[in-house]
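Hi there. Long-time user, first ticket. I'm pasting a complex I've been working with (about 365 residues overall). I'd like to know whether the download I got is complete or cut off, because the file seemed smaller than I expected. Thanks.
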Amino acid sequence: MQRVCEGDIAAFEGLVERWKTPVVRFVFRLLPDPDEAEDLAQAVFVQLWKTAGRYTRRARFSTFLFTIARNLTLNEVRRRVRHPADSLEGGRPATDDAEGDEGRPIPDPGQPAADELAQRAELTAKIDEALAALPEKQRTALALCREGELSYEEIADVLGTTVPATKSLIHRARETLKGRLKPYLASGDWDPAA
Amino acid sequence: MNPESHEDWLDHVSGPRPDPSVVRRLQSHGVLNPAERRRLADELALNRLLDAHRPAPAASSNFASLVVAEVSREGSAAARPALPGLPAWIRMGWRRVLAGGAVAACASLAALALLRTGSPELRLGPESATIAHAASLPGVDAATMADFDAVRRLGAEPRPEDDALILALAQ
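Hi, the file is complete. Here it is re-exported in full:
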């Protein structure tokens, strides 16, 4: 990171390669559209380059990076709440749900049956709904924990809180999810009979 | 990791990257009591559900090159971090210097303009003196007299015949 601070573009590219997947995945958990998540993740790294001068050696790099990622993603989420029809490029809708699927490939016979797909779609919608209903801090803590490859300490730094408070956020989020998704948790898999 | 207490194993299982070998050990008989085993099963079930939910996309192969291209496009001067290691107020200093310079330049121009024009009295030339003299005559309006080239061309020193001309023009 010190080399990046000095304007070393090759070092910066190396950092991007190392961290691109966790950042894309983290953004995707808060903004569940693959293309939008990738665009926003790129913006995160551009912002990292621009603000590298503010980085101090005492801070963990992951904390610095994911603080930028969190801020940009939350800004985008808030912008969408204010302007629901907009996307980053003003084109595609924010979700990849069943509407507007003219371009989707026709499933071949080896693919899951229609009713199974419908069940999966229902489960996906239920999980989306349960995640979306979580308070922002719990949702972010969960996303950082599962996708950001961060330790509890690093998550606490990003959220500006303590490790015990971070663990509490994650545990509360998981308790809420378990309560809302109880019918599907019997074995950890989709259970149509539930 | 070697989770000893209830809190430790729960933190491990619900935290970042649970170690499969630790999970296997927890699942083995006799490590946890029945209530804890049920809790462990619930936590692992939630992990599986979340893992299977909308698998997160991998970043595209040209992700890094797109980012670097964007950084380059925005211009190395604007994008490159300025003087790392210096305090923020120094790094921001050039903007203040620029703004201060602009203000100083404006102030200098204003002062120069004032010096060049001088005091109001100095700005009165011979024309103004003539018109002022004309306006002092009875029944003559200074604004009207200023419209006459003939009046403006009169000499600074008033002469009797000039007064007659002015009075005639004022009729």
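A couple of notes from our side: Chain B touches chain A through 45 residues (CB under 8 Å). Chain B has a mean pLDDT of 72.
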